[in-house]
Amino acid sequence: MSQTRPKYGQLFSAKGATGVSTTFDVRDFTTIYVAVTLATSASLTMKCYQSIQKTEPTFSSSASASNIWSTVEMVDLEDEAKVAGDTGIVCTGSSDGTRTYAINTGGAAWIAFDVTAFAAGTVSVYARATLKP
After folding, report:
1. Which is it for the CA torsion 102, 103, 104, 110, positive or negative?
2. The pTM is what?
């Protein structure tokens, strides 16, 4: 059943270690906006994953023919800078604050975030799924 109202979710709340976020179901939506809040001199790398698989994938396990997912590009809405999926958001201790990113998920079913490297600070991720760009 197609959604007509936006959907909201919190994927990370003050995450201060490596690891994968809560999975966010985006099957009925075309665009996802995420607010990424960094605090306490965050020094970390975080990537966004998406999947087209019918059932929820296990983003914390390796991608495979039965666990389909990959990294996805994001666009920083402040300056339209592209964040390559394989690179992710890289913070070096002086990036505290909130930035908003757009993720084009046309055709995707699930997204999640992964803190792949961590040295300090925390990150929170809030998502808004919509049918409108």
Report:
1. negative
2. 0.93
CB 45 within 8 A of CB 116: yes
CA–CA gap between residue 133 and residue 130 (Å, rounded): 7
Q: Are 122 and 14 in contact (CB under 8 A)?
A: yes
Residue 111 has what pLDDT? 97
Separation between Cα atoms, residue 97 and residue 55, nearest integer Å: 34
Amino acid at 22: T
List the structure tokens of 63: 């991608």
10-residue mean pLDDT profile of the chain (133 residues): values are 78 97 93 95 97 97 97 96 97 91 89 97 96 70
CA distances from 15 to 5, 42, 77 (A): 28, 10, 23
CB-based contact 111:9 (threshold 8 Å): no
Domain 7-56+68-130 grouped into CATH 1.10.760: no
